[in-house]
Amino acid sequence: MTNPIIERLRAQLEAGQDSALLRFGLGSALFNAKSYAEAAEHLQLCTEQMPDHSAAWKLLGRSRMALGEEQRARLAFERGLEVARARGDVQVEREIGVFLQKLSKN
Questions:
Q1: Can you tell me the distance from the alpha carbon of 15 to that of 97, in angstroms, rounded to the nearest whole number?
Q2: Are 6 and 30 in contact (CB under 8 A)?
Q3: CA quadruple 45, 46, 51, 56: dihedral positive or negative?
Q4: What pLDDT, on the 0 to 100 scale, is given for residue 1?
Q5: Selection from 17, 78, 10 nearest residue 47 by Cα
Q6: Helix (H/G/I), strand (E/B), else coil: 50
Q7: C-alpha angle with apex 50: 45 to 55, nearest 5 degrees?
Q8: pTM of whole model > 0.90?
């Protein structure tokens, strides 16, 4: 079964409408569809295009965690934590802290 949101975002990307927010939306939708590898690809590009997007770093870390890539997840979470603190994104900072604790238990 195809996901209409994912298909619409992919169509926008293919039409040349690339942007960090489009990549974040697509990565988020793919993450929710449990397509973690593809989600990570789009979220990685999002963080390259918009390095101060703390939520993208968090979701990139979660995607890497779901793929069992603990070291890469940790790096994404640590970068996201730096960005969240610098931007005053308290909620994202708290959430990343929880995920880092989960990684530490492994």
A1: 37
A2: yes
A3: negative
A4: 59
A5: 78
A6: coil
A7: 85
A8: yes
User: CB within 8 A of 81, min separation 6: which ones?
Assistant: 93, 96, 97, 100
Tell me how far apart the terminal alpha carbons of the chain are, to the nearest angstrom: 34
Work out the number of other CB atoms within 10 angstroms of the CB of residue 92: 22
Closest by CA to 30, choosing from 41, 45, 15, is 41
Give the tens place of pLDDT for each residue, 7-51: 999 999 999 999 999 999 999 999 999 999 999 999 999 999 999
C-alpha span between 6 and 77 (Å, rounded): 25
What CA–CA distance (Å, rounded) separates 100 from 84? Answer: 14
Cα–Cα dist 71/60, whole Å: 12
Domains and CATH numbers, the chain: 4-105 (1.25.40.10)
Using CA atoms, how far apart are residues 7 and 27, in angstroms rounded to an integer? 12
Type of residue found at 47 = T
